[in-house]
Amino acid sequence: MTPDDDQANGPAFGSRGKTWALGLLPILLLGIVIGVLWAWQPIDRILGRSFPPVQELSIVRTTLPEPGLVELKVVNGGPEPVTIAQVMVDEAYWSFDMKTRSSARGKKATSPRTIPRLGTATIELPFNWVKGAAHEVTVISDKGATFSREIEVAVQSPQVSWGYFGLFALLGTLVGVVPVALGLAWFPWLKRLKKGTLHGVLFFTIGLLVFLLLDAVVEAIETAGDMPEVFQGFAIVVFGTFGTLFLLQTGGNWLTQWARKRWGQEAFALALLIAVAIGLHNLAEGLAIGAAFNLGAISLGAILVVGFTIHNITEGLAIISPMAHERPTWLLFALLGLVAGAPTILGGWIGGFAYSSLWSLLFLSVGAGAILEVIFKISQQMKGNEAWPDLLRVPANLMGLALGFLVMYGTNLLVAV
Amino acid sequence: MKQDNPSRVRGVRDSSGASSAGKVGRRRFLQWSGLGALGASLGLTAGTAEKGKRGYREGTSQATSTNADAGRMGTIGSISQEERSIFDPSQFLTDWNFSFLDSEKRPQFYKESRLENGQRLREYLFVARDREIEIAPGLYFPAWTYNGRVPGPTIRATKGDRIRIWFINEGSHPHTIHFHGWHPYPMDGALSHQFVEPASQGDGLEADYPFGPGSDPSPWREIGETKLRQAGRDIYEFDAEPVGIHLYHCHSVPLKRHIHKGLYGIFLVDPEGGSEPQDRRPKIDPDTNESLPADHPVKECMMVMNGFDTNFDGDNEVYGANTFAFHYMQEPILVRAGDLVRIYLVNLTEFDPINSFHLHAGFFRVYRTGTNLSSDEYTDTVMMCQAERAILEFRLREGWPGKYMFHAHQSEFAELGWMGLFQATDRTEQT
Q1: Closest approach of chain B CAs to the CA of A120, in angstroms?
Q2: Do A304 and B12 touch (CB under 8 A)?
């Protein structure tokens, strides 16, 4: 159908049909332009088919499922299919087995080792890796381009087993559930605080959250840089963060209304919202724990676990801070603790058994968006009848904000050593 | 248009950045490492415990893979028949003066005649051309070649022969042929005014006079060197001296690129005397240093040690003897035990200052540069600088048939392709 037909028929549909037709007109024209470009290939006509090929492969994951075996996952993020000619380990050619998974159906692959655009492949290398050593794997394309990835510390990757299942659950409990629960125990103390001090505590919480927010965003952007460019990791970060923010704004409004109806106040809803946000954040942390096992888990350092518990205990405080004037039930405490802490366990499982930078990126940015929403919510609640500039003029509040940030910074030093 | 592929450079950049890839960079990893330790202390990590039980797997026998190739060092697959029909390393060992061409085609590229003074004249037609060559199974390198081959055709002459090279540059960059050996200054092909421009701009000079072996070079000389080179042609003429194993290569700049792209080959000058080329050097038992009978069989092998930087990062991705990675692993060089094996070895590896040749289970005599008829060394490993060359002679022991490896003793080069086998058969067997 040509655009003219549409316009001619327009009145028959009434004005609504015409609106549709006019809306579709540019798309139809676009279709024609694409058709012409496809059929006529003007760029090839002018320059000939002598373009140097642009090849972009990424080894997105290396796993060592058992001694003597290395597995690579390769993604073709470039504009055209890439054929893998050979594979090297530590500057030596090595025989390999390759399975291609292609999203391009019906397209005839020129070679069984050709990865279509956006396709992925799994490469199995029977190679006796050395425990604790670093290895470098390199795939070399038919055009001689090389794409490498370092296995920083070779250790056997976690396998889906009860042992690892339990390990990640235990670690998640230690670094997620326990500190959050301990933090909740600040509640009786919180109830005794005067309003001014409470505001200081809330600002302290905001300070904590700002640190977590920045940490998550920086991590997410770093992760985005590691992904194949074609996936536009940065856009996913922006979308994940703000998408979550807007979703929680809407969901949060709904939740507060429901809470007001149910309990006659909003504080529980806010606490739940903060718990959800921190839960998302902890999911990303759990993911990193699990993924660390893929890179290798070595030296004994129980002090680091202790460091983590200290680092995360403040999260519990953040959750209860809006409820200082309320009387929550034990059940609610348990719920809040689970919502905030348990995702660490889930994250550990995902990260350990099925890590991908895309998951990591998604969780980090969703977590960031959630934290952002919580910061807004706490600020709103605190504001009440007072104006923001007045709140910020109170030294205790500013001190609280700075202290919150510094405490996070300090406890992060503990775990970063 | 720019010759080199930006994507390759990109690939390299990616690779260097990839060490931090996979999220959980070093910082994160350290943060979490303590947790792993905790797991280990609780006896939950499978790593150490299981490894002790199972031990490392060896070779292919226990591999889970269905691929018969799996579990060994080396490339997989084989070089295409198409490439083999243009260049075959097994054939290269014993072909010179365009003997790889059939009798009809060969005279276009090689011709032997006598000058008026009785001197033997050997004429060659060399054509520089760009071609994507396959250097390992499925791996292609955008080479600059002489006559489509890397290394270029071997030139073999007897001391005192007149050599005349008719050269056309059909490539995309200015090229020359620079010979190691004695020649007058105009034949050196090394200074910028001696560079031969790509002939594609051709001004029809070839229409006026025939160009190539058997033709009369005087009209071309009258045209003048400068004009000739601008038209993409040149003629190199000199006497083959001194005796030895030499080389030729392009001397355009940048040198590194013009050489590593593939513009090089062997220039061999035999001593006078002897009816067959292989009989012109004295035959000496490498192990006893005593003379062998004049009719003792000789197995000759031309070998160029070379490398290819496929991603243009100034480091070779593929090494080999005669271009194909691991070629002689897949097709061992057949040798009858007891025969005198003579290797004409030239090092044309670019980027790495040295390369080497190591023979398993035997020792060889080294005749450095082949200029001396008595040996310099009795060893199983010889080291060579870029452009250094030597003639190596050895005999594989009778009664010990089998496969004997030879390779660079830089293990890295060996495992990136510079590795092969001599297959020794007993004298009575046919080779």
Answers
A1: 16
A2: no
Domain that holds residue B284: 277-431
CA B287, CA A329: separation in Å to the nearest integer? 96
Tokens representing residue A94 in the block: 């090595």
Phi, psi torsion values for A63, nearest 5 degrees: -130, 150
Whether this prediction's pTM lies above 0.90 is answered by no
Nearest to B23 among A141, A223, A307 (CB): A223
Distance between CA B421 and CA A304 in Å, rounded?
54
* Ordered alpha helix ranges (H), B55-175: 81-86, 89-92, 106-109
Parent domain of A65:
57-151
> CB count, 10 Å around CB of A45?
9
**Residue B219 parent element (H or E):** helix B218-223
Give the minimum alpha-carbon distance from A286 to chain B in angstroms, rounded to a whole number: 10
Q: Lowest mean pLDDT: which of B68-82, B244-258, B275-289, B389-403?
A: B68-82
Three-state secondary-structure class, residue A124: strand
From the list B6, B46, B71, the residue facing A156 with the nearest CB is B46
**Distance, CA of B286 to CA of B379 (rounded, Å):** 10
> Cβ–Cβ of B33/A59 closer than 8 Å?
no
Residue to substitute from B7, B45, B134, B313, interface A, most A β-carbons within 10 A = B7
> Are A399 and A270 in the same domain?
yes
Cβ contact (<8 Å) for B54 and A67? yes
Is A251 in the same domain as A285? yes
The answer on pLDDT for B98 being more than 90 is yes
CA–CA dist A245, A382 (Å, integer): 19
Cis before B151? omega within 30: yes
Chain B nearest CA to A49, separation (Å): 12
DSSP per-residue string spanning B144-160: EEETTBSSPPPEEEETT
Helix (H, G, I), strand (E, B), or coil: what is residue A191? helix
Q: Which of A309, A291, A276 is nearest to A173 (CA)?
A: A309
The ipTM is: 0.80
Is A143 close to B140, i.e. CB distance below 8 A? yes
B407-429 tens-digit pLDDT: 999 999 999 999 999 999 886 65
Pick the residue from chain A with its C-alpha nearest to B41: A300
Q: How far is B200 from chain A (nearest CA, A)?
A: 17
Residues in chain B: 431
**B390, B369 Cβ separation under 8 angstroms:** yes
**CATH number reported for the structural domain that contains residue B408 in this entry:** 2.60.40.420
Residues of A within 8 A of B413 (CB-CB) are none
Q: Do the Cβ atoms of B60 and A126 come within 8 Å? A: yes
User: For B216, which DSSP code?
Assistant: -
Chain B residues touching A300 at Cβ < 8 A: 34, 37-38, 40-41
Q: At what angle do helices A395-416 and B26-41 cross, to 10 degrees?
A: 70
What would the pLDDT profile of A109-130 be if each residue is shown by its tens digit?
A: 556 889 988 888 999 999 999 9
- B23: nearest CB among A54, A113, A357: A357
B58 is a domain residue = no
| Residue A405 maps to a domain | yes
pLDDT per residue as tens digits for the range B138-183: 999 999 999 999 999 999 999 999 999 999 999 999 999 999 999 9
Partnered with residue B381 across adjacent β-strands are B358
Q: Per the CB < 8 Å rule, is B71 touching A170?
A: no
Residues B262 and B289 in one domain: no
Of B272, B300, B326, the last residue of a domain is B272
Q: Among partner residues A85, A152, A297, which is closest to B138 by beta-carbon distance?
A: A85
- If we measure between CA atoms, which residue out of B190, B185, B145 comes closest to residue B169? B145
* Last residue of one domain, picked from the residues B232, B248, B272: B272
Question: With contacts defined as CB-CB under 8 Å, which chain B residues touch A291?
Answer: 22-24, 28
The verdict on a CB contact (< 8 Å) between A138 and B15 is: yes
